[in-house]
Amino acid sequence: MVDGERIDGAWCHIWRRDQMGGGYYLDDLTVFADGRITCGERTDLDGLAKKLETGRWAVTDPAIPPPSKWEARYSEPLTAEGFVLEVADRIEALSGRPTAGQRCWDAIRQYEQQPTEPNRELLRAAYLAVPAHLRVYVLGDMDLQDRPLRILLTDIGEAVDGDGPVATAEMRQGALDYFSRVSKAVQDEQERQAVRYADDPAERGRPALVSHETVYPRGWPDEPGLFMLRNDYPAPVEFAGDSYASVQHGYWALSAAEASDRSRIRDAASGSEAHELGGRATRRSDWPDVRLAVMAGLLRAKFTQHPGLAQVLLSTGDARISYTGFEDSPFWRDVPDDRGRNWMGRLLELTRSELLAQQLLLT
Is 3 inside a domain boundary? Predict the structure, then answer.
């Protein structure tokens, strides 16, 4: 997270040289959409290339070349240069930009439409821009791998891959027919998805909004801000025939099995105290089954009974709401290690949608 915005990342294993013993050990390398790379220390693409060049980091032990490239069923050996290209490609993907594989497919489509020699040279350049160890996967075909592409790029009369069959006009036409079938299948699937995903947003939504746990020792600010999304914000709610000083009071009071505990929690001096009392009280036996519905009802009451707070929630637009903190369980909040289910964030988004729908029905 950077300034409240989620920066997507991906990771893989890499070999790092032990500065003391000189040997190598396996470590995690993480790359982010903004170009940052971490593996025990922070670097970038240029730094990664230098570390691989000097041997501080290594991608793998040298592999034995296959006896025949044409007959091989596995990729070319991973090299330091290829790994740097793969990391650069992953940054492009994380940033929403076309990858080398996607650009290769664009060149294939162009050659399909106009099978001229200049377009074949453009296709060759696009194919060679794909990291060598990933080229067998560029078509996504487990059986033929990238062979149709290699056939297209071989001059007629030359052996494919140097040790394969001699390329003929019939083989080239067969490769073009292969891509024509693939294009038709892709088009059919896109048409099916257009129907199935007809309600999917056409444009990317706002960046994620992070609701941090908030503490105000001198009292809450007078003007409602995004801190009012928190459950302990003092917004009185009427719910299920009773009054509560905040959503936090209502949730923990309703979770208690004993009436005396419910009263003590309801009358607690603060949301934090209500949470403490509720956590120590005996829980209703059916609470795991109903707690989501109770929380949804409390949030609905909070924002419908306080129009000013409703406007603040609506101002977040379609942003994903990440509800963080330390006091609530991972069931309710976002947790970096994926244990968090962020149900509070989801329910706030649902409440926001209901408020907007209600406004539209009234206009």
Answer: no
pTM confidence score = 0.58
In this structure, are 112 and 88 located in the same domain? no
Neighbours of 7 (CB within 10 A): 13
363 residues of the chain, pLDDT tens digit each: 777 788 899 999 999 888 776 788 889 999 999 999 999 899 999 999 999 999 889 887 544 456 677 887 788 888 999 999 999 999 999 998 999 999 999 999 999 999 999 999 999 999 999 999 999 999 999 999 999 999 999 999 999 998 899 999 999 999 999 999 999 999 999 999 889 888 887 787 888 888 988 888 888 888 878 999 999 999 999 999 999 999 999 999 999 999 999 999 999 999 999 999 999 999 999 999 999 999 999 999 999 999 999 999 999 999 999 999 988 999 999 987 667 899 999 999 999 999 999 988 877
- How many other C-beta atoms are found inside a 10 Å radius of the C-beta of residue 220? 16
Query: What tokens does 36 get?
Result: 């940052």
**Are the C-beta atoms of 40 and 11 separated by less than 8 Å?**
no
DSSP assignments along 184-201, one per residue: HHHHHHHHHHHHHTTTS-
User: Domain range spanning residue 187?
Assistant: 100-196
- Domain count for the chain: 3
Burial class (CB in 10 A: 0-12, 13-18, 19+), 219: exposed
Token pair belonging to 172: 């080239």
For residues 199 and 235, what is the distance between their CA atoms, to the nearest angstrom?
Answer: 35
Whether residue 183 sits in one domain with residue 105: yes
Does residue 202 fall inside a structural domain?
no
Share of the chain residues as helix, strand and coil, in percent rounded to the nearest 5: 45, 10, 40
Asked if residue 204 is part of any domain, the answer here is no
Distance CA 333, CA 39 (A): 28
125 in a structural domain: yes
Q: What angle do CA 346, 301, 265 make, to 5 degrees?
A: 95
CA-CA distance, 341 to 329, in Å (whole number)?
Answer: 9
Residues 42 and 127 in one domain: no
